[in-house]
Write a structure and sequence with these properties.
The complex is a heterotrimer of chains A (about 325), B (about 270) and C (about 260). With about 325 residues, chain A is an alpha/beta fold. Chain A is built from 11 helices and 13 strands. Chain A has a 6-stranded mixed sheet with strand order 5-6-7-3-8-9, sandwiched between helices. A 4-stranded antiparallel sheet of chain A has the order 11-12-10-13, with helices on one face. In chain A, strand 11 and strand 12 form a beta hairpin. Chain B has about 270 residues and is an all-alpha fold. Chain B has one domain. Helices cover about 75% and strands about 0% of the residues of chain B. Chain B is globular and about 55 Å long. Chain C has a two-stranded antiparallel ribbon with strand order 1-2. Chain C has one domain. The radius of gyration of chain C is 19 Å and the shape is globular. Chain C is about 80% helix and about 0% strand. In chain C, helix 2 packs across helix 6 and helix 3 packs antiparallel against helix 6. The relative contact order of chain C is 0.13. Classes of the chains: A alpha/beta (about 325), B mainly alpha (about 270), C mainly alpha (about 260). Chains B and C meet through helix 2, helix 8 and helix 9 of B and helix 2 and helix 9 of C.
């Protein structure tokens, strides 16, 4: 029995066209025309309890729109959502009691008050029983080392500290599902790692189902077991990360330092993906051409100083999926 | 259930007040500014009426009575509903999403999140002005009068609140409303400070049926001051304030709900 | 100069995009002005002239002053600076190789010229037509009126700018803003009634404050209340206030800048 089921989910927006120029602007004050944008277009997926899923896509791909529909903020244009047996936008209140949400860019905490005050307020808003509240607060403040700044006003926290508090705030009421919208945005490397480790731990120890939108693919690689990629409102990949590497990871990257900057480089069966001075990046599919064949071609035509072959990073794979689509 | 919400209201309001008190100087200056501007406005009004004696047959005391009545309703509304005057912030900064993921009714949450004690200073000034004007207009205190006055002030507060709510809700369609709500409420408050008999018919109709602030001051004052000046409207209007308040409450709440529905479908 | 004009143009265009706001603001403003116009009509029943103003004169005064008051309503420079300080955006602004005060003024001018064109002008024309108001006595007065409006605008801007800069120290300036703009400026600018109607002690305070230079001076020039020598004096007083307040603003933002550099905000 999946915890979340999404069937044929679509969300269309009207976008008003702005005319340019002075008179265009002026006439816009009287009447406007609009286009239809399909932010989410016939999306299907389902999640089992305890999964940890990365939901990724470029800006405007439809990530946030999907999350907003799952949390009950947005009503779908068409399609069906089932979250723990509830329809989020119809049973908004029941749904909110059982989910936790973290928006990376906006804190849900009371800006001018000590952190602990926010937690206290949330206790009352979510009607968390006192003993559960105490237990959870202890658990999280130990895990995230919140103790030193529990009585500091939120506005004085660093971004990383604030995110740790926001995570706690979202989990105090023992939600079954945790939605995170760009939780690592703007954080430094250490803070990012802390957040990632925390998510893995919460997922493992408390069986919280986690959905995470991000455009930092390191998040996905280090945290998630499953990856859903959305582009232009459509899901273009849904599966395990290893599987993705297996399917699309046949591409290898050859990084070559040439002796001089050749103006024109031509090789068969190889894509020149990047170029920086004398260094070039060549991508090739190991099923159609072997590494030694590529190197042979190269040495025959150009003078080479150094070369390395690399496994594809997930980032590269996703980039290629975006560019070429799924085959 | 009701108990829970009352408690939650005070908790949230308390959190806001504590936040504001972090900036004591600003808080103090603001209270001071409000009191000063209230007194000065009254001074100007006084200077004006000292020169002209009457406005359309209304004496100085009677006009101040109207002014005080409107101001009372206005300041109570300001204490409880200040959040609505820059409600568009919730949409522009995406804060409404944060409200919608909480297990409480959105309007309740938004209102409770800002209870503006600064306006208590205005309320106190208004009470003082009103009591003096009440006395000067030669009204005698009886139980009836006291009850009627209280009902009038309560209804007036609600009427102004609903106007504010309607105006704020518009932002759910237009995204940005800037200072519109503030402007609208100041304009209507200003309009209630004078007997509506000075306006042409169209404005009187507007203030009676569209932005029914005439029920905040003018019509109830007919009863209290025994002016008997109805301008062709039913005499029953002097008792109409609570009814108008209730109707407006329903209308504005329905409007709010439909605005929220619209937000649910566009998200911006 | 050109780079500052870009700010003006951008702010102008930004404001253009909010069409609903535009119409509603106009509607409410008209309502506001109607209240005052009819109040004065009621007050003048059975009178011909009070304090040198006849009915037509006072209505002209009220409409012009209420129109100019729109600047005070819509200019939100101090709030914008406060927000920039809060978010830290001000740092990038101060590091740019441009004058922060001038840039802010240029931006404000963009928003305000939009307001002038799409709100103040239609509003004024509407009332001008509906109530048969009078024009300034001569073309020269029209010219001087506009000069005075611009000077008054710069004074208003400078006051708001200084309030905004206080955000570097106070963090929160809503209180200061409310006190100065909603308290002092509203009272002493002469928007509600001409200064000639003020009781003695208020009139005396008004003379030493800059606020009458924002609304009363230009309006009184328009209505012909200030002519000849008194008109020139008014303009000189305005110029003095411009110099003083712009100067204070500069000093204040230099100090803020130093504070930022030394303490890192």
């Amino acid at each position: 029995m999946p915890i979340i089921t999404v069937e044929h989910l679509s969300k269309h927006f009207k976008v008003y066209r702005r005319r340019t120029g002075f008179w265009g602007n002026l006439s816009s004050t009287v009447s406007r025309k609009h286009d239809i944008i399909k932010a989410v277009d016939d999306v299907n997926f389902s999640l089992e309890r305890g999964e940890l899923v990365g939901y990724i896509g470029a800006n405007g791909a439809g990530k946030s729109t999907t999350i907003k529909m799952l949390t009950g903020i947005l009503v779908p244009t068409s399609g069906h959502i089932d979250v723990m047996g509830l329809t989020p936008y119809r049973q908004r209140k029941e749904n909110t009691r059982r989910i936790g949400v973290v928006f990376g860019q906006r804190t849900q905490l009371w800006w001018d008050l000590p952190v602990i005050d926010s937690f206290e307020l949330l206790k009352h808003i979510y009607e968390i029983p006192q003993n559960l509240y105490k237990q959870n607060l202890e658990f999280f403040s130990e895990m995230l080392q919140l103790q030193p700044f529990l009585s500091t006003p939120v506005r004085r926290l660093s971004l990383g500290q604030r995110m740790r508090c926001d995570l706690t705030a979202a989990l105090l009421h023992n939600p079954e599902i945790l939605y995170l919208d760009e939780p690592t945005i703007g954080l430094d490397v250490v803070a990012k790692e802390q957040v990632r480790q925390f998510l893995r731990q919460v997922n493992a120890e408390r069986q919280v189902t986690v959905i995470l939108t991000t455009h930092d693919l390191n998040d996905v690689e280090k945290v998630c077991q499953r990856l859903i990629i959305i582009d232009n409102g459509k899901i273009i990949y849904d599966g395990g990360i290893d599987d993705l590497k297996k399917r699309y990871g046949k591409t290898r990257m050859l990084i070559v330092d040439l002796a001089q900057a050749y103006s024109d480089i031509q090789l068969e069966g190889v894509d020149l993906t990047r170029r920086d001075g004398n260094r070039i990046w060549l991508a090739f599919d190991r099923d159609t051409i072997s590494a030694s064949e590529v190197i042979a071609q190269l040495t025959a035509r150009y003078e080479i100083q150094d070369l390395t072959i690399s496994e594809p990073e997930i980032e590269e794979i996703v980039r290629r999926i975006y560019e070429l689509g799924v085959h | 259930m009701v108990r829970r919400y009352i408690k939650l209201y005070f908790l949230l309001a308390g959190a806001y007040v504590r936040s504001r008190l972090q900036y004591r100087l600003s808080f103090g200056l603001m209270c001071f500014g409000i009191v000063i501007s209230e007194i000065c406005l009254l001074g100007l009004l006084g200077a004006l009426l000292a020169k002209f004696r009457t406005v359309n047959g209304w004496t100085w005391a009677e006009v101040v009575f109207l002014y005080g009545l409107g101001n009372l309703a206005y300041s109570f509304m300001r204490i409880l509903g200040s959040q609505l005057d820059d409600f568009d912030r919730y949409i522009i900064r995406g804060e409404l999403d944060g409200v919608l993921i909480k297990p409480v009714p959105p309007l309740f949450y938004i209102l409770a999140n800002r209870v503006e004690l600064i306006h208590v200073s205005r309320a106190l000034t208004s009470v003082a002005i009103f009591v003096v004007a009440f006395h000067l207009s030669g009204i005698r205190w009886t139980l009836d009068v006291a009850l009627f006055t209280l009902t009038t002030i309560l209804s007036g507060t609600l009427i102004m609140f609903t106007l504010m709510l309607i105006s704020a809700t518009v932002a759910l369609w237009t995204t940005k409303s800037g200072k519109l709500t503030d402007l609208l409420i100041s304009a209507t408050k200003e309009a209630t400070a004078f007997p509506i008999s000075i306006y042409p018919l169209a404005v009187r109709l507007l203030l009676t049926f569209v932005l029914p602030v005439a029920f905040v001051t003018y019509y109830p004052a007919q009863q209290l001051l025994q002016k008997g000046e109805f301008l062709g409207m039913p005499e029953l209007f002097q008792f109409g304030a609570p009814v108008v308040a209730l109707v407006m409450l329903c209308v504005s709440y329905l409007f709010w709900c439909s605005g929220l529905r619209r937000y649910h479908s566009t998200g911006s | 100069m050109k780079k500052y004009l870009t700010f003006t143009l951008k702010a102008f265009q930004r404001t253009l995009t909010y069409r609903f706001e535009l119409w509603m603001e106009l509607f409410i403003n008209v309502l506001f002005m109607l209240v005052y116009v009819y109040l004065w009509k009621a007050l003048y029943t059975g009178r011909t002239s009070v304090e040198g103003y006849d009915l037509n004169g006072i209505l002209t005064y009220i409409v012009v002053s209420q129109t100019l008051l729109t600047f005070t309503f819509t200019l939100r420079i101090s709030r914008i600076i406060e927000e920039k300080v809060r978010t830290g955006e001000v740092v990038t602004d101060l590091m740019k190789p441009i004058d922060f005060q001038l840039m802010t003024l240029a931006t404000a001018a963009g928003t305000s010229s939009h307001t002038a064109l799409f709100n103040m002008l239609p509003k004024f024309l509407l009332f001008y037509g509906a109530f048969g108001l009078s024009l300034p006595p001569s073309p020269l007065t029209v010219f001087l009126f506009f000069i005075s409006v611009v000077l008054g605008y710069i004074i208003l801007f400078s006051i708001e700018f200084i309030i905004g800069i206080f955000a570097f120290w106070l963090v929160e300036i809503r209180g200061l803003y409310a006190f100065v703009i909603w308290g002092l400026a509203m009272l002493f600018s002469g928007y509600f009634l001409p200064l000639e109607f003020y009781p003695d002690f208020l009139a005396k305070i008004a003379v030493v404050l800059p606020f009458r230079a924002i609304i009363y001076f230009p309006t009184a020039i328009y209505t012909g209340q200030l002519i000849g020598e008194s008109l020139v004096t008014a303009l000189l007083i305005q110029l003095t206030w411009v110099a003083v307040l712009v100067g204070i603003g500069r000093l204040a933002y230099r100090a803020a800048f130093r504070k930022l550099v030394i303490q890192g905000g």
